[in-house]
């Protein structure tokens, strides 16, 4: 593998939208090298030795937080986890004050997951540390899209020209948006499918095809990415019930049988077995859901290395 | 050095390696990316011709273990390592093109120990240009080239560039 | 008070069809005729326009209750610096201006500490909750010039109908911040490409259009004046235009930020672009300009809405809506004259005779004997807005650093120069 002459210049990873194709490929290539570290006996390299990483998870998440924590410790960084739900912050300290406190502790990297879109951008204007967006409201989840892209490239050898279908609640999904930006930027053909209330046609302006016909959406797909569907308070006006969603848009065995023989099944997790995906389909050989998790670790190591592996700010 | 001189040096080093390591079935080669890798393959081939069999060869990318990451403005690009065999209990011949400060070799030894526990590590370099900053010494040297700190030693290899040569630039 | 001679200015008084260079004499706080007395102060207005004092019919002075953000003193000083001689203040104070006592307080404070005339608007419903009518008769006696629930919007159409019918009895126009709560629930910006792209909850223009339509129908039914505040949507403008053709008693206003900016400005998540109604698309912005040009939109107002720094320096989702605007309002509006969207006369009407007529104020003219409220305007002065020097207690403006052309150079209230450049 040839080393590229490209040098990474950013100290933050706030989203996919502002990245160039070169930058995205550089992250994927770097992730390939870091994936090897997880396969050795000694799963540690000293690249971020002595750096302090704070996981600021205002919106809770065990999986993503664990992934970032593991990525940081494998790079020899020190990790502190701060989990708070938004209400305790609203009652007490503002996000700005929380961030300034972390800066006073000389944090090098802040990984932030927050319910408000734009929160990482807000932080990046206030503190000197590297800001890594682990999910901001419905806006972006860049490392998820990057690990999805890594998985696609590893399995299919390329991204350009592939038919990728993303299914489910697109309107409120940061995973969908980051994937849309990345896949369209790299030349894939993106189809979005789901109920008309959750997949409005305005997404065509982002360069995607929008359809409400599930069968048609998956028929020619090379990659099918299923999003988790929720029926919580805010979504109750958007579709009548989980049962109806599953009947119309769930990837059940019958629908799965009509996909292309080499179509790959992806899901950001956690999966709702029997809702957006049939239990057996989730476990079949064409499902790469668990590999996504492994690749997520490699991608996050790459992102941490690139954004803070140079001179301290 | 020109292409012929490089070949002669590698041939001599191959004989020295065989002479110096009687337990020949435990020898493996690991080349430091980027130029050390093709040199390791060439050395392994030559030693293999002498011993009459193929010798395992791997490639090591030492970027993650560099000691200057904090001092650079932007992080250097990392590449893949490829050591498809166990190094535990083996005589590992580390191969690089130019030995200078010794820091790359320090990083390589640290990284190598993440892969296993070699019986011993020997160092083979095509060129030793002096100016060591760490207590590291080569076991097999192609050519000693005394240089000043401001000079640059550039090694081109046919596998990567268009020809074999070693050049000193002021 | 000494008499005042405003000399050599180009006097533009739409009410009296005056449009030419002439002197203006002020004596005993009124517009006078004849030549200036010998002891008069002189204000040279050469190269400038002299117009009736400008009226801003939509400002939030925040007193009583939030004097940390703005007070009647600081807010009216902003008005004076912006060239405004009269402001109408909104009732969403704390306590709300839904009772005669709060109105009396506001008038008292204004008397003591305001730089310009302050005309309070009273509430439509108690505590602006949209459930029961406020004591509208009592508010009228206390001196309100209009009623509105601004900040909020009466959702119950029957209640709104009764409010309009009742207000008619007191010759009070009803003003409305047009917003359907359900269509706009949890939204923080305009629903469209940008809200989708930024991952922010948006609300569609229909949330405003639906209430504008409801107001038109109620105005028609009650045969009384309903004023739609701060229009932001193309469809709203079209609805008002059509209703006016049929003679419905409907009027409308627009704010400078809606005819200057679009929702694309939100892309940096800067909360100085978060207001209600939100910035909308370029097509909406163009429709507002057309509505101003053809008279569908009667007035321009600022919706000056101060908020403290710590309130705005938060995530976009949780920041309060609103921006200050009194000091940039005139310049942003004069840009329409420079771009030939409006003539200067048309623009002046939207700040003088139109709001005065709507609110039954004896203002907006330079008729001899009228109150001497005068604004002197330099149409061509180029300047850069520096919000750090604002007279407001708050700093929430999206126009900091913006290069502007045109401004007030003197503001005269009741014959007294309350501000001069």
Strand order of the largest sheet of chain C: 3-2-7-18-19-20
Distance between the termini of chain A: 31 Å
| Overall 3D shape of chain A | globular
Per the CATH scheme, the topology name of chain C is TIM Barrel
**Number of helix segments of chain A?**
12
Radius of gyration of chain C: 20 Å
Number of helices of chain C: 13
What is the percent of helical residues of chain A?
A: 25-40%
Count the E strands of chain A: 9
Poorly predicted runs of chain C: none
Name given to the CATH homologous superfamily of the largest domain in chain A = Aspartate/ornithine carbamoyltransferase
Indicate the CATH class of the largest domain in chain A: Alpha Beta
For this structure, the CATH topology of the largest domain in chain A is Rossmann fold
What is the CATH class designation of chain C?
Alpha Beta
Supply the CATH superfamily name of chain C. Metal-dependent hydrolases
Strand content range of chain A: 5-15%
Overview features:
heterotrimer; A: 313 residues; alpha/beta; Rossmann fold; five-stranded parallel β-sheet; four-stranded parallel β-sheet; 12 helices; 9 strands; 14% strand; C: 421 residues; TIM Barrel; six-stranded mixed β-sheet; 13 helices; globular
What is this entry, summarized?
The complex is a heterotrimer of chains A (313), B (170) and C (421). With 170 residues, chain B is α/β, with parallel strands linked by helices.
What features would you describe in this structure?
The complex is a heterotrimer of chains A (313), B (170) and C (421). Helices cover 40% and strands 14% of the residues of chain A. Chain A is an alpha/beta fold and 313 residues long. Chain A folds into two domains: 21-141 and 294-308, Aspartate/ornithine carbamoyltransferase (Rossmann fold); 142-291, 3-Layer(aba) Sandwich (Rossmann fold), CATH 3.40.50. In chain A, α1 packs across α6 and α1 (21-37) crosses α12 (289-308). In chain B, strands 2-1-3-4-5 form a five-stranded parallel beta sheet. Chain B has a two-stranded antiparallel sheet with strand order 6-7. In chain C, 30% of the residues lie in helices and 21% in strands. In chain C, the strands form five sheets. Chain C has a six-stranded mixed beta sheet, covered by helices on one side. A five-stranded parallel beta sheet of chain C has the order 11-12-15-16-17. In chain C, β2 (10-13) and β3 form a beta hairpin. The longest helix of chain C is centred in the middle third of the chain and has 17 residues, at 206-222. The radius of gyration of chain C is 20 Å and the shape is globular. The A-B interface holds A 1, 3-4, 6-9, 26, 29-30, 32-34, 36-37, 40-42, 44-47, 302, 305-306, 309-312 and B 33-34, 61, 63-66, 69-75, 77-81, 110-111, 113-116.
């Amino acid at each position: 593998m040839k080393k590229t002459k490209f040098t990474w210049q950013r100290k933050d990873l706030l989203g996919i939208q502002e990245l160039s194709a070169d930058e995205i490929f550089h992250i994927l290539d770097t992730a390939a090298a870091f994936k090897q570290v997880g396969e050795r006996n000694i799963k540690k390299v000293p690249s971020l030795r002595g750096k302090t990483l704070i996981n600021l998870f205002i919106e809770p998440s065990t999986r993503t937080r664990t992934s970032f924590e593991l990525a940081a410790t494998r790079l020899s960084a020190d990790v502190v986890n701060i989990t708070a739900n938004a209400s305790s912050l609203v009652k007490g300290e503002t996000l700005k004050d929380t961030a300034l406190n972390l800066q006073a502790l000389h944090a090098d990297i802040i990984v932030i997951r927050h319910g408000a879109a734009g929160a990482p951008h807000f932080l990046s204007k206030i503190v000197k540390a590297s800001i890594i967006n682990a999910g901001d409201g419905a806006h972006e989840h860049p490392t998820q899209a990057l690990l999805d892209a890594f998985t696609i490239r590893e399995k299919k050898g390329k991204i350009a020209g592939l038919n990728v279908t993303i299914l489910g609640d697109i309107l409120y999904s940061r995973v969908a948006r980051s994937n849309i930006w990345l896949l369209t930027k790299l030349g894939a053909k993106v189809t979005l499918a789901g109920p008309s209330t959750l997949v409005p046609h305005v997404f065509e302006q982002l360069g995607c095809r929008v359809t409400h016909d599930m069968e048609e959406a998956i028929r020619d797909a090379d990659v099918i990415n299923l999003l988790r569907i929720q029926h919580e308070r805010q979504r109750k006006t958007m579709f009548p019930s989980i049962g109806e969603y599953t009947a119309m848009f769930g990837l059940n065995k019958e629908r799965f049988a009509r996909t292309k023989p080499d179509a790959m099944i992806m899901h950001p997790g956690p999966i709702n077995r029997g809702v957006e995906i049939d239990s057996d389909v989730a476990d079949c050989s064409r499902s790469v859901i668990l590999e996504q998790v492994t690749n997520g670790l490699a991608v996050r190591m790459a992102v941490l290395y690139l954004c803070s592996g140079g001179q301290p700010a | 050095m020109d292409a012929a001189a490089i070949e002669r040096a590698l041939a001599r080093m191959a004989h020295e390696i065989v002479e110096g390591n009687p337990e020949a079935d435990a020898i493996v080669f690991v080349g430091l990316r980027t130029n050390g890798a093709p040199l390791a393959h060439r050395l392994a081939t030559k030693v293999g011709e002498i011993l009459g069999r193929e010798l395992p060869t791997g490639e090591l990318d030492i970027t993650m273990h560099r000691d200057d990451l904090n001092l650079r403005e932007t992080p250097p690009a990392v590449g893949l390592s490829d050591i498809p065999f166990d190094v535990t209990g083996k005589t590992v011949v580390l191969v690089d093109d130019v030995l200078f400060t010794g820091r790359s070799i320090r990083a390589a030894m640290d990284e190598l120990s993440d892969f296993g526990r070699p019986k011993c590590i020997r160092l083979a370099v095509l060129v030793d240009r002096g100016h060591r900053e760490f207590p590291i010494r080569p076991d097999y040297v192609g050519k000693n080239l005394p240089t000043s700190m401001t000079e640059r030693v550039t090694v081109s290899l046919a596998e990567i560039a268009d020809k074999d040569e070693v050049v000193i630039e002021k | 008070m000494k008499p005042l001679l405003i000399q050599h200015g180009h006097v533009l008084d739409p009410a009296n069809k005056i449009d030419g260079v002439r002197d203006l004499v002020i004596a005993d706080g009124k517009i006078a005729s004849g030549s200036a007395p010998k002891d008069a102060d002189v204000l040279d207005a050469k190269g400038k326009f002299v117009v009736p004092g400008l009226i801003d019919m939509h400002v939030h002075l925040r007193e009583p209750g939030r004097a940390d953000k703005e007070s009647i003193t600081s807010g009216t000083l902003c008005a004076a610096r912006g060239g405004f001689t009269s402001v109408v203040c909104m009732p969403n104070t704390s306590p709300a201006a839904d009772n005669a006592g709060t109105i009396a307080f506001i008038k008292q404070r204004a008397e003591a500490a305001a730089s310009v005339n302050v005309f309070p608007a009273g509430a439509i419903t108690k505590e602006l909750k949209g459930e029961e009518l406020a004591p509208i008769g009592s508010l009228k006696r206390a001196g309100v010039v209009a009623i509105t629930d601004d900040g909020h919007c009466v959702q119950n159409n029957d209640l709104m109908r009764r409010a309009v019918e009742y207000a008619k009895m007191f010759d009070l126009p009803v003003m409305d911040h047009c917003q359907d709560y359900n269509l706009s629930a949890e939204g923080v910006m305009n629903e469209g490409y940008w809200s989708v792209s930024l991952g922010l909850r948006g609300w569609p223009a229909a949330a405003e259009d639906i209430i504008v339509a409801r107001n038109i129908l109620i105005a028609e039914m009650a045969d009384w004046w309903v004023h739609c505040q701060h229009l932001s949507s193309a469809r709203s403008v079209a609805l008002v235009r059509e209703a006016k053709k049929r003679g419905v008693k409907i009027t409308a206003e627009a704010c400078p930020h809606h005819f200057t900016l679009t929702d694309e400005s939100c892309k940096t998540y800067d909360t100085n672009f978060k207001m209600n109604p939100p910035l909308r698309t370029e097509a909406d912005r163009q429709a507002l300009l057309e509505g101003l040009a053809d008279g569908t939109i009667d007035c321009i107002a600022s919706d000056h809405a101060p908020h403290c720094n710590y309130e705005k320096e938060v995530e976009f989702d949780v920041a309060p809506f609103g921006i200050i605007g009194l000091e940039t309002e005139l310049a942003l509006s004069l840009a329409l004259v420079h771009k030939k969207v409006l003539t200067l006369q048309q623009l002046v009407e939207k700040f003088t005779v139109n709001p005065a007529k709507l609110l039954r104020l004896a203002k907006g003219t330079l008729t001899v004997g009228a109150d001497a409220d005068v604004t002197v305007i330099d149409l061509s002065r180029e300047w850069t807005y520096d919000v750090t020097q604002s007279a407001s207690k708050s700093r929430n403006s999206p126009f900091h650093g913006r290069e502007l052309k045109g401004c007030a150079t003197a503001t005269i209230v009741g014959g007294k120069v309350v501000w001069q450049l």
